Automatic annotation (TrEMBL):
Gene3D superfamilies: Cytidine Deaminase, domain 2 (3.40.140.10). CDD domains: MPN_eIF3h. Belongs to the eIF-3 subunit H family. This is Eukaryotic translation initiation factor 3 subunit H.
Amino acid sequence: MTAPSMAAALAASLPTPSSAPPPAAPVYEAIPASMSTAIDIEAEIPLTCVQLDALVVTKIVQHGRDAPSASVHGLLLGLDLEGVLEVSNSFPLPSHANDDDEKSSKSIARYQASMLRSLKEVQGDDNVVGFYQATTLGAFYNQTLVDTQAIHQERLRHGGVVIVHDISQTARGNASFRAFKLTSSFMDAYKRANFSTSSLISHRLVFSAILEEIPLRIRTNPLTSAFLNVLAAPSSSPYTSTQLRSADTLAVPPSFSVLDLGNSGLARNLEQVSEAIDNYRTEEGNVAYLSRQIGREKLRAETYVAKRKEENAQRVAQGLNPLPEEDVSRLFKIPAEPSRLESMLLLGQVDAYAKSLESSAGISLLKMYGARAGSGV
């Protein structure tokens, strides 16, 4: 028996499959009214607050302290419930300062995918809700932050958020965390890739209208809160001397670093303000140069059109056929109007450095007046 006939015999010996009934249509139950606000499938509930777990705060602070450079960024993981974006975990992204942009972006993408896959395997939070960015002296306006947040707002639920962490404030003992997202007017101009002067006027865009701040709160684990309360509560120590036996001691000794009158931070802040102003003036010079080039090309095109019209009028008066009209845009390459986005971002940096300088100078002056009053001078 040949192979085809054997296969046919085996097929004939098998029982004929019975026709299965068509599957019943799935029945979906309506979401209870009590859960309609929590289960926001269509993301119709707007974000009203961002909640950071204490674990996320410590991770971001540790990353900013241990990073060799100021380029500190990472992803935020969590879930949005009833208009509150709960950030329960985070992980840092590697920084490749010496690699080219394409190689660095591919490496970061592979690392990000590997981390999310590992978190999913151990049943951890793997839902990306935004990213965090560390900065110094409050100056977080830059092109990288805007581009990354724009991508997140197009792909994530509720657009995601960016958490800005000020390393310089943390070094002074004040952990600074702020949540932002891009405004709708800026996103409209960004999608059109048009930041010309007319576009800024129509969208009413200034540097303060690029980002909108979202209220942020920090949730502490109850066990952590209890532990901190125990450390901060005074307790009697049996190891003190006879004279100090009745005195109370603290598990966490007080810090007097806030009384330091050093002004090294002010000098650094002034340098940053001067550098940001110089960068802004350079950018404005480039914009002015491009605007003059555009004006010269437009003048040449208008002169050419006027001359051609005059020649045609003379030819018609002489009974000759007018010369054909030519496409001016092909003869004269008029550059596009320069983008003003970089100028706005630099203005935002100048404003942030100035506000940080105002705060630092105010605190330093207060300390100096307090020290002078205490010394009786």
